[in-house]
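Subject: Sanity check before I submit

Could someone independently write out the structure tokens for this chain? I want to compare against mine line by line before I put it in a report. The sequence has 304 residues.
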Amino acid sequence: MKHSHNHIHDAATKNIGVAFFINLFFALFELVGGIYTNSIAIISDAVHDFGDSLSLAISWFLQRKSNQKSDNKYSYGYKRFSLLGAIIMSVAIITSSIFIIKESISRIIYPQESNAQGMLLLAVFGIIVNGVAALRLKKGNTISERAVYLHFIEDVLGWIAVLIASIVLLFYNIPILDPILSLGITIWVLSNVYKNMKNAFKILLQGSPENIDVNKLQYEILRIKLVNSAHHIHLWSIDGLRNVMTLHVVIESGIKQPQIESIKNEIRAISNNFNIQHTTIEIELEMKNCEFNDGCVEFKNEKK
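---
Independent answer below. Compare away.
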């Protein structure tokens, strides 16, 4: 499993690095295209893409940082640094989205004529470049990749809106079509950004992983022979991929050390089946007074 997770983080680092260079290249192209078509909207978008490139550079650095092994400063390793990259990228998307919403509303109220042919050419190129980046990141497993993926999806959908608007504008004079499409797409992207940030903050706040059925996990542990009850069961995720559990297990008195080791091995096997990679088990011969009342919920073996 360790090798698998390291491979995932290495792939994420590479994907975000490629995304950074694609975004930077396109921002330069967009700036030249905006100047050529005399479009202040495209020039403004280019400036924001340069800001997004800076955010991507930071995300790339933090994703690389997350690949470092654990040390005395960070005993669980640096995996959570990738979450910071995801949050920074999400904030960048929110910032650019606010600008797009403001600009779209302004253009609905005060429609502006656009260079339809120039918009069409830039839109086709924008869809291709950002689409390639989005496809590369679509199968990513990390939250930081998801955040960057949403950024490129926002750009792809935005350019699709520009493409549709430019084709219509070649035949009909409906200048408010572009800002209306952009407004709808931006709201959709923001809803996805919210979900991504919610997941990132839940991990940072050590919430229980959503993909683990805690009740079923407790049931499987209590089915182990000689286990009477369990308490102080705590579950959290390091980075959304690697999960951790600690628990106290109360066993019958008179059990010898080989049997205790067998119980621990069974618990670890169950944990692995529930996608928990690191489990710390404390064995107790009887229920003791809990140090922390909030965490001391005892789950008894009903078959006893």
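---
OP: Matches mine. For the report I'm noting this point. The two ends are 35 Å apart (CA to CA).
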